[in-house]
Task: structure prediction
Amino acid sequence: MSSEICSAKGNGNCLGWAARDASGVLAPYKFNRRDVQGDDVSIKITHCGVCYADILWPRNKHGDATYPMVPGHEIAGIVQEVGPNVHRFKVGDHVGVGTYTNSCRDCEHCNDGLEVYCNRRVGTYNRLDYDGTLTYGGFSTFTVVHERYCFKIPEEYPLASAAPLLCAGITVYSPMMDHKMNQPGKSLGVIGLGGLGHMAVKFGKAFGLNVTVFSTSMSKKDEALTVLGADNFVVSSDQDQMTALAKSLDFIIDTASGDHPFDEYMSLLKTAGVLVLVGAPSEIKLSPLSLIMGKRSITGSASGGTKPIQEMIDFCAAHKIYPNIEVVPIEYVNEAVERIIKKDVKYRFVIDIENSLK
Result:
């Protein structure tokens, strides 16, 4: 996409916070949302989670940024208008929007409710939609999306807590379900205890798994065991602790984005064990024997399709699973970004859009 330059001032119908350049610094910006079409839902945004993607894209770390860029793809809010063809939602419903807002709707992935793997999927922000307009994310007062990419949030589930489910939650829930990590009594390892990792621990315990958390920092031990309810905590640099767990885990969810060794984690898996990568290190290095000699596998997973997203939201509501969040006003967002980089958040910032973005 080519870069574009716009003024912060204008007659746009939507107010957001946008990055203007690769510094990633966010500031107020007015822009236009489309009018509600037949199958659209207009949502007053009440809360939006802050994902690590909201740092990488505004700072053009993927090399495809278009400015001004309004980030945010963990959106929760209240329906304020529906198109004439919409039957799944009504005004006043609590809803969420995740990492994409369009897809081809006719490929094998879309037909299976796995739109996240559609080759023509349109991201919630920094992407060209089918009509040629640029998508803008949830750091804004409202959004308009096709009802297919909108999810019902039960009335009793807090909207602030619901926001991180739309990316952090589904990113770990989806592969856990795909690889049958919901079998009570099985053992799960979770690498990293950030926004994704802490949700993997919560889901693991809800599924009845024995959960071991791996971290580079002993400082997270009490939090993992006492607050999140993990069964075991291991400092990954302690070889004695790692060796003691050889061939003991059925599954591993790897949420770490920093570069780290893989062979030692693969050695912790039982025969035919599976490691699922949901973080994004710059490379993966491992010996083929780590796979061959234990019939082990390593795979990856993106956020999730529309079908598993709704299943996950309903599961969280039924089992009273809530992300650990810190709610902040929009004016704090740049400081929140710096704190995320320093790993100074437990475990997800959520912006109170409704009460701070006026």
User: Anything to note?
Assistant: The longest strand covers residues 40-49.
